[in-house]
From TrEMBL:
GO biological process terms held by the UniProt record: alpha-amino acid metabolic process
Protein name as it appears in the record: Putative transcriptional regulator, GntR family
The entry's keywords: Aminotransferase, Pyridoxal phosphate, Transferase
Cofactor names: pyridoxal 5'-phosphate
Annotated region described as Disordered, given as residue ranges: 1-23
Organism for this UniProt entry: Sphaerobacter thermophilus (strain ATCC 49802 / DSM 20745 / KCCM 41009 / NCIMB 13125 / S 6022)
Length: 405
């Protein structure tokens, strides 16, 4: 069977066949820091039922009919209002393309702009959901390293210059400026200005993935790259997965109206999730999303603080980690000589799971790092899981320090 299929796969199919996806359901007893899952008890199940009732009472059968992905309808209007209020993005409803989660919007973007052999620049490390899509589209992904202030525009410029000398130009730069996945860091204000300026000067398209922008623990929001670019060189990617519910599968791309219309024509499924869009629209219009976001910020801040405290208490000397001001993730650097890939089987054996840093790079780097997600686990699981991780790390450290036999 498998042999037959190995003949059938396309280039894309072969790439997918060579990968693997771990189950989203952790085995019994396992404390999983793997996925950026939501805090399940706070998912707005009752409010979605209220929204459904509202649609039924108002005879909104159109919410179960076909609708084009982009037609400036109600959800586009309420998203346009939210973007103006929360992200300083002033656009018309026609500039918003509602997709089946941000993932489908980004995937469509790949279909529409990438050809095999193209170059894409990306944060290094970056969310593998996106970089895998770029690779599946046949693109070469060049990583630009991050530090505590996010991606460095000077380094982006250096890569652009380097490519220009080879007669090449990237199709776009993919970056997650706010509470980055996997590092949790935030692009500084100064760098936001510099990056938007660079995009305008060099005619560089930036894909700004701001999936976590609403989940800020403290301080004022920073301006989006989209709002800072004077020449429309930024496409903004947003999602309702982190703030309402991932199961609604609603994300949105924001850009020039004609570009969004072309994207909609190029989509395999040119229609939207009409019903979940109507539920989400009710949730936004009723003001419930704003209130819910305030609640979520509290929940995730508490979990993040709990994990930071546990790391401080438990981890051996030589371990360091990022201190996010929002989002779902902490990025850990293991002590010298400890390898996150090699340590994973022992960690799973001990009942704790994580993603090794290598998954977030395109060049095999990241063996000394791992991503911890605190969003979907309980406070008690955080304490216990970090204690288990620390024990395994100490054992790996002892082994690394032991003389070779
Ligand atoms: C940075 C980033 N962008 C996009 C997504 C995907 O969101 P969606 O569920 O809307 O496809 C995720 C989900 O993990 C993410 O971390």
């Amino acid at each position: 069977m498998t042999d037959t299929w190995s003949q059938r796969w396309s280039r894309r199919g072969k790439l997918a066949a060579s990968g693997s996806a771990p189950s989203r359901v952790a085995p019994p007893g396992m404390i999983s820091f793997v996925y950026g899952d939501p805090d399940v008890p706070s998912l707005p199940l009752e409010e979605m039922a209220q929204a459904a009732e509202y649609l039924a009472e108002n005879n909104r059968r159109d919410a179960l009919a076909y609708q084009n992905a982009i037609q400036g309808d109600e959800l586009n209007e309420s998203l346009a209002q939210k973007l103006a209020r929360d992200q300083g993005i002033h656009v018309s409803p026609e500039q918003i393309f509602v997709s089946h989660g941000a993932s489908a919007g980004l995937s469509l973007l790949c279909d529409m702009v990438l050809d095999p052999g193209d170059v894409v620049l990306a944060d290094a490390p970056a969310w593998m959901g996106a970089t895998n899509m770029f690779r599946l589209a046949g693109a070469e992904v060049i990583g630009v390293p991050l530090d505590d202030d996010g991606i460095d525009p000077a380094r982006v410029e250096a890569v652009l210059d380097d490519l220009a000398r080879q007669g090449r130009k990237p199709k776009f730069l993919y970056t997650i400026p706010t509470f980055q996945n996997p590092e949790g860091v935030e692009l500084s204000l100064e760098r936001r200005h510099a990056l938007a300026k660079l995009a305008d000067e060099r005619d560089l398209l930036i894909v700004e993935d701001d999936a976590y922008v609403d989940l800020r623990f403290s301080g004022e929001p920073k301006p989006t790259l989209f709002s800072l670019s004077q020449r429309g060189n930024v496409l903004f990617s947003g999602t309702l997965s982190k703030t309402i519910a991932a199961g609604l599968r609603l994300g949105y791309l924001v850009g020039p109206a004609d570009v969004m219309a072309t994207m909609a024509r190029g989509a395999v499924d040119t229609l939207r999730n009409t019903y979940t869009a109507a539920l989400a629209d009710w949730y936004l219009r009723s003001g419930k999303l704003e209130a819910h976001i305030i609640e979520l910020r509290q929940i995730y801040r508490e979990k993040c603080e709990r994990m930071l405290a546990a790391l401080e208490r438990e981890m051996p000397e030589g371990t360091s980690w990022t201190r996010p001001n929002g989002g779902f993730f902490i990025w850990l650097t293991l002590p010298e000589g400890v390898d996150a890939v090699d340590m994973l089987p022992a960690a799973r054996e001990a009942g704790v799971d994580y993603i090794p840093g290598t998954a977030f790079y395109s060049d095999g780097s990241g063996r000394g790092n791992l991503r911890l997600s605190y969003s979907g686990v309980t406070l008690e699981q955080i304490d216990e899981g970090i204690a288990r991780l620390a024990k395994v790390t100490r054992a790996a450290l002892a082994k690394a320090g032991a003389p070779a036999d």
